[in-house]
Every structure is written in structure tokens, then in C-alpha cells.
Amino acid sequence: SEVGNYILQKEEDRILVAENISREDADQPFGDLREKKVTLIHYIVEDTELLEQLEVGDKVKITPKVNEEGFYHVRQSDPPQIIAGRIEREE
User: How far is C-alpha 2 from the chain's CA centre?
Assistant: First the structure.
């Protein structure tokens, strides 16, 4: 099965993405993924129209939004939060 980054949850202005997992693993409970040390990141989606189009289970490629110096800010929460710059749905 194809490995990629999958949307696990969608809420208000953000999506929870698990990185480098199979489509089958995306269906596992959140706690199981944490036990397996899967990287989980909340991406804040500023484009409300795009957010409406995204669905749980979508495979995505996300580029963080960067500042003038080319850096992006990671909010130190668990899971960490990053503002999404560009989101592409993959097949």
C-alpha cells in the first residue's frame, strides 16, 4: 500500500495529519499511532474554502507557511501546530 501523509481529523480551522503512513494505518485509532511513534502535526488552514474541500482520509502534501526569512513557526503543543502554506491532495 502507498505510504504518505494522511488527514486523520478535521476541526474548526485545522487538520491533523499523520506523516509517512499507509492508507490502512490512517484508519487506526489515534492512540495506536502515538504508540508507534508516528509523526502527528496539526496544520492550521487559513483558506476556509480549501479547508471545506479537504476530507478525513485524504492523502496530502503540505508546505508550511514561511516568513520573509524562509522560516516557519512551530507552536510547541502536542501534537505541534504549524500554519499550512500550500496543501496539495495526492491520489
Answer: 17
